[in-house]
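A.,

Following up on our hallway conversation. Structure tokens first:
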């Protein structure tokens, strides 16, 4: 199915390449290119911040194929905001996006003991919205002008999943992946 592993310093350039690719950048809340210097600062922070953030690389059959994050994590509210994407070389529709979500949510709810995972997704990113819907995320409000895009501010949809709801769906999601 795949697994999540800790980031290593060797992942830094790979993640920047993925993030700035035409397959990933347009679907991020900020779609402008990230400089090497900016990325280096960010990467240094996330390697050392294990209290309020969890970043993992997904591997499938020995190939690094995606990034998953829970950041920030609110330890008082036991909640976190999920973010992630597949590497540009991974074919969409392969099932690896759902695998990435399954592994991330297992980490969030079983290992970190969070009660709520939230995500913000760009209006119009129907593939991601469909993925979140299929897993059981509930749509919240539309937040206008939240994302910083080249062509001006973009709108996002807030979605969330409670641990209790995940516990009802996780076996079904796992069966689909197997």
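Then the amino acids I'd put at each of the 178 positions:
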């Amino acid at each position: 199915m795949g697994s999540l592993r800790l980031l290593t310093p060797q992942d830094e350039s790979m993640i920047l390449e993925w993030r700035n690719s035409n397959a990933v950048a347009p679907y991020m809340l900020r779609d402008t290119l990230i400089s090497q210097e900016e990325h280096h600062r960010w990467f240094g922070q996330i390697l050392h911040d294990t209290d309020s953030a969890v970043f993992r690389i997904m591997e499938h059959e020995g190939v690094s194929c995606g990034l998953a994050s829970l950041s920030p994590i609110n330890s008082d509210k036991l909640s976190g905001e999920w973010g992630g994407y597949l590497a540009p070389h991974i074919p969409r529709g392969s099932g690896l996006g759902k695998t990435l979500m399954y592994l991330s949510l297992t980490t969030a709810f079983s290992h970190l003991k969070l009660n709520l995972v939230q995500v913000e997704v760009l209006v119009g990113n129907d593939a991601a919205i469909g993925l979140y819907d299929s897993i059981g995320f509930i749509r919240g409000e539309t937040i206008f002008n939240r994302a910083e895009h080249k062509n001006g501010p973009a709108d996002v949809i807030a979605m969330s999943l409670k641990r209790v709801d995940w516990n009802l769906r996780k076996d079904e999601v796992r069966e689909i992946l197997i």
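The two ends are 7 Å apart (CA to CA). Curious whether your intuition agrees with the design.

B.
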